[in-house]
# Entry
Amino acid sequence: MTFPTNLMTRLAQLMLAGVLSLGVGLPALAQSQGTGLPLPRFVSLRADEVNMRTGPGVQYPVEWVYRRRNLPMEVIAEYGTWRKVRDWQGAQGWIHQSMLVGKRTLVITSTVRTLRQRPDSNSAAKARAEAGAVGEVQSCAKAEGWCRVEIGNHEGWLRRVDFWGVYQNELVE
# Structure
């Protein structure tokens, strides 16, 4: 059975249009439609109660409920108004952007840590912070291993390795 040439040409054009429309749609879905800010980056929780979902939308189930305002989160991906984040213990999921703020915070990891008067291990102690304590990062010099922080009403210096919330060589002003 033979088809007229113009019918075959038209059929080929329709098939090609269908394939191209699928190809154009798929990259748009896969691409980040977020802020254009660098990834990864640190943010913190805006509210006392924040839901982390399994996907970027309210139709996805809640996997975790965070009950700690200012807890640091690492944004690792963006999709529309949703941010894929990782917490200090490695849990990952999606949080709506309205529940996140750019404030730089920290969480003490492992054991009790000592805030120092100066960025020096031999400097006088100002306070002690227990594992899980949340505070604010005030500044970190890029070349130093120390950051100026505030935990509760105590300001002092902590080594970067004593907390989670900044990158190894990151400058925070």
Observations:
- The chain has a mean pLDDT of 85.
- The domain at 106-164 is CATH 2.30.30.40 (SH3 type barrels.).
